[in-house]
């Protein structure tokens, strides 16, 4: 049987001015010759929350199941969703030291979004000149700058 799912490459990034502080997330979705940019802002947040929001919003944007290559510069995001989450679930959303998992509500949202897609999670070093990552970073920072200009 042939896999008819659309192939999509996603680049995500989160940014925060202060931690916590005003933050933004940026996403670049690429499929064939088509590109779509997304960005969002939160007044008081953390960098990790923005990294998670970028991935959640990117996957939410896909209207049907896809084959996804998702690129992030966040080991927190990549390792969290591919390695750590399995034990968090087994321990009822507690860490190995029995503390509540930070950002558990966002991890749950992300996990829900992943069920529809076949996702390969990739890490890229941030600020290393990778075009997709640089664009996602720029979008995240634009979201912060645009909100600050209006405030």
From TrEMBL:
<comment type="function">
    <text>Endonuclease that specifically degrades the RNA of RNA-DNA hybrids.</text>
</comment>
<keyword id="KW-0963">Cytoplasm</keyword>
<dbReference type="Pfam" id="PF00075">
    <property type="entry name" value="RNase_H"/>
</dbReference>
<dbReference type="InterPro" id="IPR002156">
    <property type="entry name" value="RNaseH_domain"/>
</dbReference>
<feature type="binding site">
    <location>
        <position position="51"/>
    </location>
    <ligand>
        <name>Mg(2+) 1</name>
    </ligand>
</feature>
<feature type="domain" description="RNase H type-1">
    <location>
        <begin position="4"/>
        <end position="145"/>
    </location>
</feature>
<feature type="binding site">
    <location>
        <position position="137"/>
    </location>
    <ligand>
        <name>Mg(2+) 2</name>
    </ligand>
</feature>
<feature type="binding site">
    <location>
        <position position="13"/>
    </location>
    <ligand>
        <name>Mg(2+) 1</name>
    </ligand>
</feature>
<feature type="binding site">
    <location>
        <position position="13"/>
    </location>
    <ligand>
        <name>Mg(2+) 2</name>
    </ligand>
</feature>
<dbReference type="GO" id="GO:0000287">
    <property type="term" value="F:magnesium ion binding"/>
</dbReference>
<keyword id="KW-0460">Magnesium</keyword>
<comment type="subunit">
    <text>Monomer.</text>
</comment>
<keyword id="KW-0378">Hydrolase</keyword>
<dbReference type="InterPro" id="IPR036397">
    <property type="entry name" value="RNaseH_sf"/>
</dbReference>
<feature type="binding site">
    <location>
        <position position="73"/>
    </location>
    <ligand>
        <name>Mg(2+) 1</name>
    </ligand>
</feature>
<dbReference type="InterPro" id="IPR012337">
    <property type="entry name" value="RNaseH-like_sf"/>
</dbReference>
<protein>
    <recommendedName>
        <fullName>Ribonuclease H</fullName>
        <ecNumber>3.1.26.4</ecNumber>
    </recommendedName>
</protein>
<dbReference type="GO" id="GO:0043137">
    <property type="term" value="P:DNA replication, removal of RNA primer"/>
</dbReference>
<keyword id="KW-0479">Metal-binding</keyword>
<dbReference type="GO" id="GO:0005737">
    <property type="term" value="C:cytoplasm"/>
</dbReference>
<dbReference type="InterPro" id="IPR022892">
    <property type="entry name" value="RNaseHI"/>
</dbReference>
<keyword id="KW-0540">Nuclease</keyword>
<keyword id="KW-0255">Endonuclease</keyword>
<dbReference type="GO" id="GO:0004523">
    <property type="term" value="F:RNA-DNA hybrid ribonuclease activity"/>
</dbReference>
<dbReference type="GO" id="GO:0003676">
    <property type="term" value="F:nucleic acid binding"/>
</dbReference>
<comment type="similarity">
    <text>Belongs to the RNase H family.</text>
</comment>
<dbReference type="InterPro" id="IPR050092">
    <property type="entry name" value="RNase_H"/>
</dbReference>
């Amino acid at each position: 049987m042939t896999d008819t799912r659309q192939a999509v490459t996603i680049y995500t990034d989160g940014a925060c001015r202060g931690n916590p502080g005003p933050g933004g997330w940026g996403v670049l979705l690429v499929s064939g010759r088509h590109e779509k940019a997304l960005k969002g802002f939160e007044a008081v947040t953390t960098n990790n929350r923005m990294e998670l929001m970028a991935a959640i919003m990117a996957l939410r944007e896909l209207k049907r199941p896809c084959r996804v290559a998702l690129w992030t510069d966040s080991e927190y995001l990549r390792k969290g969703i591919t390695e750590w989450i399995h034990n968090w679930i087994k321990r009822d959303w507690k860490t190995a030291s029995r503390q509540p998992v930070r950002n558990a509500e966002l991890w749950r949202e992300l996990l829900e979004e992943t069920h529809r897609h076949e996702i390969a999670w990739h890490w890229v070093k941030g600020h290393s000149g990778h075009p997709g990552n640089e664009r996602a970073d720029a979008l995240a920072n634009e979201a912060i700058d645009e909100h600050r200009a209006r405030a």
